[in-house]
């Protein structure tokens, strides 16, 4: 066997896949663990064979950037290995994401909680920007939450570096509701300000508990923004009418933010408004945001461990399954994917674990209806 | 960026950025470490490949030495650069592909994988990792006698050999920063400076044919290139950065880099390369030569293992169906059966 292949096998053996937990556009995500320590991890398996141009760009970007970034508020890539034609990213396991937190109606957010999430988001983002990396897809569902409450920026599949100033970039990035007006107008030379706009939208959403600017199409998105924040004048945003895809979408008056965000403090609204400034160059930067009085005023940010979190279904029983599986087996010998019974291996312990898991899964399914 | 940082404020955060990089952590060596790594890689390869030759037939084979491997790789480093220029790829792609090629042969031997093949894959991969993707088909079309599958066939191997460390810090970028910075020196003549920069760029390119990037930092290499173009300007810049040192130490640090660029910065003699390549034909790993006995044997072995695995899986499926408990079936129908999970052990 070649040395490289051998090294890969060694790496692969350090991790075990247990159970499928999710599926994205280009990957299947498993819960797994580090064999030596039992540490919980997420293993994101990207199928490479299916792409006619080989390793696809999202996977390449994700690996490229996460290999370089180590920060408390950026998801940690622990390892990368391949299995046949799959690329496996071993990531720290994160219990939930900010979208699920926002949507969980049983949770009550204190102003200090929102401040804490915002501080962690800005810290992670400041680190990315300091490393000359634009995320370009910030939204609540890409802000994952660890079991200790730490928020982690994830999903770098659209990220890019911007060391080359004046390099033309695509404007087809960022999920619509979080996309800044300069991109909607087709601006191809943009900067860190695009991510800041997204953070502004997330900030507002944390207060409203519903998306702040939910446009129905790209055109409607501009209208939605202008309806909320007023149509920009030439003075607000010099030169915007000259942008490639500029179209007038109507005149809307500016309404003060406090009419919608009635409970927010002036500091809070001041920071929010600075994230949502039309002229990208005037929009606040991540570092500046971290020094904003909002973060130093009462109430102080909640300690991450005190932040509200959805109750995690299944945690207990699945831990039991984990305890039952064969720990000595190499790599992914254990594929505890309860609904997928045909693919499981069969030690007797394993079978017991499986039926427990399946029963619980079953009740959960019926309970959902 | 340790020495001669390219920004006016070499803040500690800047320092840690580079020092946290995979390049700094995984791909920096001393000259001795490099020589040793190559020697041991070569020795392992020679003994492993020797065993693959049919009994007795390897006795007369003259395997390549570590230096000969380096020579051949260097030839393809130069080719790699030509190819990128020919295809109109940005310098970022060219520099990155060359780094990949060098790193690849710190993990593999040319007797297993010929650099002319790896070069093509390294360039293709670099177009993607630097965010200048091209379609595989159009890329392959522009290279004579090359099918898309030739390039893709090695992509995973290359990525793996790189340890998936795709990001590379380049000297030409550091040089750009240095150039901007030098413009702030008092009494600089912009015309002269532009000429110095043009010449420094040539030195950075020459440096890519050498091992310097595996030993020194991008900013050290960029300062060296600048010093080769204009010793006076480089010294003036260094003194302006470190006013406390009349003879800035960085200028001494870059001396060995100067020598490496001067002595190794040119493509190798074609005749010497040709001789090595001719011998490579006789000593390359027979398992990798399509159609050879050893290749067939390896193929058969792989096929046999796959067949065993299929049978084992089929038996498991059979067993699972027989064992199926009452809770299983409705759920199995409920969720899509994850058929893609059978390919990773
Ligand atoms: N680090 C992680 N820890 C725990 N679960 C994760 C982790 N990463 C992803 N998941 C789960 O896997 C699912 C799929 O993740 P993935 O990042 O592939 O796609 P996505 O972001 O949901 O969608 P898309 O690929 O369309 O952006 C997530 O929704 C989540 O439930």
TrEMBL record, chain A:
Every Protein kinase domain range: 15-295
Basic and acidic residues biased stretches: 347-369
Keyword annotations: ATP-binding, Kinase, Nucleotide-binding, Phosphoprotein, Serine/threonine-protein kinase, Transferase
Binding site for ATP: 21-29, 44-45
GO terms, biological process: positive regulation of transcription elongation by RNA polymerase II
Keyword Transferase recorded: yes
Family: Belongs to the protein kinase superfamily. CMGC Ser/Thr protein kinase family. CDC2/CDKX subfamily.
Protein name: [RNA-polymerase]-subunit kinase
Automatic annotation (TrEMBL), chain B:
SUPFAM superfamilies in the record: Cyclin-like
GO MF entries: cyclin-dependent protein serine/threonine kinase regulator activity
CDD domains: CYCLIN_CCNH_rpt1 (cd20524), CYCLIN_CCNH_rpt2 (cd20525)
Domain of life according to the entry: Eukaryota
Cyclin-like domain ranges (all copies): 78-160
Keywords linked to the UniProt accession: Cyclin
Keyword Disulfide bond part of the UniProt annotation: no
Name of protein: Cyclin-like protein
Organism annotation: Wolfiporia cocos (strain MD-104)
